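Exercise 7b. C-alpha cells:
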C-alpha cells in the first residue's frame, strides 16, 4: 500500500475542501493537526477499553485531515514558504512520536516493540528529507510512507476495538501473544526500516549519477 502514488487523485478531492478553508492561516492548520496527534497519543496511552481506541482513531483522522489541508491552503493563498514547510515537517515528526509513543508507553504494546516502531518511522522520514537536504529530489518512495501509516493507525484501532470486546485480542504467534496494535508496531518497525533502506539506496544512486 503506497498511497503517495495516488497524490493527484487525492488532490482532486482535497482541493475543493481547501478552497472552503481559504481564510484559515496554514500554520494554524498545522498546529491543529499536531493537537490531533497529541490527543491521539494520549488516548492510546490511557487505553483501558475500546472507547479509547476509537478516540485515538478519530484524533488521527483529525491529524491527517488538517495535515493534508495546511499545504494545500498555503498554495491556494499564495503564501507557501520554506518556513511553513519547516514548521509542517517538524510538527509531523513530533506528531509521529506522540502517536506511537502513546501506544508504546500505554497498555496496547510492550515498550521495546513500540520503540522499534518509532525508530522505523523516524528513519523513514529522515531518509526522505535528508535526500532533499543533499540536493536530491525529496524521496517519498517505499511501502511505509506517512499517509500509509496514518491510514493503518486509523483502521487498526477501529478493528481492534470490537475484537477486544469479543475477547480475540491478544493474538498468539509462535506461542507468543501479541496485541493487534503490537502487530501494527512490528509492521512499522520492519516496513519503516526497509523503506528507509530503499530511500537511501535510491538517493545514493541519484547522487552517484550527479558525480
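Sequence design result:
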Amino acid at each position: 500500500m503506497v498511497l503517495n502514488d495516488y497524490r493527484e487523485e487525492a488532490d482532486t478531492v482535497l482541493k475543493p475542501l481547501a478552497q472552503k478553508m481559504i481564510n484559515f492561516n496554514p500554520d494554524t492548520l498545522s498546529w491543529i493537526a499536531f493537537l490531533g496527534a497529541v490527543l491521539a497519543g494520549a488516548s492510546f496511552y490511557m487505553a483501558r477499553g475500546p472507547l479509547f481506541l476509537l478516540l485515538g482513531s478519530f484524533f488521527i483522522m483529525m491529524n491527517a485531515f488538517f495535515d493534508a489541508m495546511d499545504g494545500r491552503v498555503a498554495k491556494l493563498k499564495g503564501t507557501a514558504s520554506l518556513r511553513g514547510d519547516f514548521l509542517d515537517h517538524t510538527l509531523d515528526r513530533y506528531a509521529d512520536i506522540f502517536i506511537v509513543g502513546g501506544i508504546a508507553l500505554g497498555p496496547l504494546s510492550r515498550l521495546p516493540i513500540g520503540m522499534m516502531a518509532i525508530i522505523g518511522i523516524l528513519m523513514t522520514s529522515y531518509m526522505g528529507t535528508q535526500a532533499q537536504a543533499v540536493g536530491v529530489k525529496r524521496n517519498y518512495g517505499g511501502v511505509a510512507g506517512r499517509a500509509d501509516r496514518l491510514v493503518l493507525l486509523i483502521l487498526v484501532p477501529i478493528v481492534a476495538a470490537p475484537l477486544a470486546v469479543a475477547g480475540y485480542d491478544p493474538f498468539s504467534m509462535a506461542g507468543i501473544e501479541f496485541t493487534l496494535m503490537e502487530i501494527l508496531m512490528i509492521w512499522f518497525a520492519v516496513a519503516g526500516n526497509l523503506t528507509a533502506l530503499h530511500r537511501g539506496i535510491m538517493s545514493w544512486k541519484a547522487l552517484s549519477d550527479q558525480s
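Instructor comment: Strands lie at 171-173, 176-178. The CA atoms of residues 82 and 108 lie 37 Å apart.
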